[in-house]
Amino acid sequence: MKRDSRLSSVLHALLHMAANDGPMTSEALAHCMHTNPVVVRRTMAGLRQAGLVRSEKGHNGGWTIACDLNAVTLRDIHAALGEPAVFAIGNRNAAPECLVEQAVNAALDDTFREVETLLMERFGRLTLAQLAEDFTGRLAAHHEKIRSQQNAV
Prior knowledge:
By secondary structure, the chain is mainly alpha-helical. The protein is built from six helices and two strands; from the N terminus they run H-H-H-E-E-H-H-H. Helix 2 packs across helix 3 and helix 4 crosses helix 5 (99-125).
């Protein structure tokens, strides 16, 4: 079963955009995300409608972030993507009159709702600024590791 990785992909693109000084073209973002520029444009169009990004056409154009990274949460981005399903698993509905199936589906439905509520609460607490800060720290540690290796040679 294929998983929906749009949220992860969009977060990836937004962090690249946040780290970049100017607009990023769909082609540049596609290269960072290992995807096609058409997929980037289609995805960014939804984010533009939500006011999270903007685009400029022409020479020196591209995509830029149009929101405050401290104010935008993963839940906001999930909503901008159309609130894709968070689970790749679901109930079996081959025999809705079956009492066993009803019991199983009721238990699973309750569990899915509870877990999705917890996930959305967590998404609501995580901001783009927090992700950008984590990335910046990882990048600095990576550069320090490279410098240390070069000095050891």
